[in-house]
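*Target chain*
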Amino acid sequence: MTEAQAIWKQNQEFEGAATSGHTIVVDGDKKAGNSPMELVLIGLCGCTGYDVVSILTKKREPFTSIQVEAEAERAATSPMVYTEIKLIYRIGGNVSHKAVEDAVRLSEEKYCSVAAMLNKTAKISYRIEYVDQ
C-alpha cells in the first residue's frame, strides 16, 4: 500500500510526503512549489518516461536522451479536470524508430498507470521527435 500526506505550512503551501519518505512542496498559488495539477502532469511525464526508458533498455536501443513534455487543457468548470493532454517525446541517439514507437505505444496503452487514470477524463495524444541523429 502507498500512503501520502500533505501538511499545511502557510497560505496555499503544503509539504507533501509519501511512503518513499521524500518530501515535496505543493503550492496552490505556485509561489513556493508546483500546484497539485502541475504535479499530476509531472507524474504522467515521469511515468511514461520511465516505461519508455525501461523498454528501450531491454531492447538494447542506444538512446542518449529522453524528454517527455506535456501540454494540457482543463475543463472550464469545477472540478476543472484535464480534458486534453498532448505528450511530446524527444528521443536522442541512434535508435530504431519502430522500437521507440512501440515503447511509447506500450506505455500509453498498457503500462503507464498515471495515463490509465487520466484517460478517464482526458484525451491523451502524443508525438515523437528524434534529436541528435
